Amino acid sequence: MQGIEATAVVRYTREDGLAEALRGADALFVYDFLSTAVPGAWHGADRLRWLHIASAGVDPVLFPELRASEVVLTNSRGVFDQSIAEYVLGVLLAFAKDFARSSQLQSEKRWLHRETERISGKRALVVGTGPIGRAIAALLRAAGLDVAGVGRRARADDPDFGTVHASDELTRHLPDADFVVLVAPLTEQTRGMFDARAFNAMRPSARLVNVGRGELVITSDLVEALRTGRIAGAALDVFDTEPLPTDSPLWTMENVLVSPHMSGDFAGWRNALVEVFTDNFQRWRSGRELRNVVDKQLGYVPSSR
Fold first, then answer.
1. Is 270 annotated in the active site?
2. Would residue 173 show up in a list of annotated catalytic residues for this protein?
3. 15, 20, 65, 242: which one is catalytic?
4. What's the pLDDT tens digit per position in 205-219?
5. Which of 134, 173, 213, 230 is labelled catalytic?
6. DSSP letter at 66?
7. pTM, whole model, 2 decimals?
């Protein structure tokens, strides 16, 4: 931020001082991307023109007053794409190669030979066709999986997915997938999209991977699907309540991998987020087009593909 401080007055604040810090401010950088303080402090935004959030998801700041305003909203898409794709490939391999069981047996000093699965030739359905979804598709294809996508509109010639199915036809295509990867943005259309009906459409041998938003999934329906063997397992990096409550049954299910919202957090990610904002700030000061402008009605940055 030193380059910005040389050309602008920068105010640093915590949540309780946000409303006052917003008075007279032209731009707001929401570095704490999990904070929900912006709506409550919005009355202080008397001249704000631009809001940037240090995440790909914008749901914490996409409240009605911002949607209705002329304030430009940008996000930090592009920072976490490859890291999240690597996480997805990692958990698919962990399931297929039974790493959790191997770790348990090692702790017990037990030598138990088993056969494991191959991921090559398996089918993955990636729900969400933005940059993160495309990075996931590319890496899974390189590992030998057959990949398709689910997005707003169907198309058969997508350069990264090949076939993209329309989101309103999701349940028709869930039975085809060995792995279902959620990376869709959280919108009114996607909230709770994975419910009992969706889980009932999946293969009993299928695994769910959620690296998008916890609210994409109805947690109670997921727990029931896992408990009854309706689906074979889940790798979950995001949850509708974070931190995951200690009494959640997800912690102790043998067919569940839990990680604390860290799939994209590579060493150096904080600096990378600041660099995205700094670049956009220089663009903003010079009147150039901003990167990653969010369509506030859609809830994400529209893709050209």
1. no
2. no
3. 242
4. 999 999 999 999 999
5. 213
6. H
7. 0.94
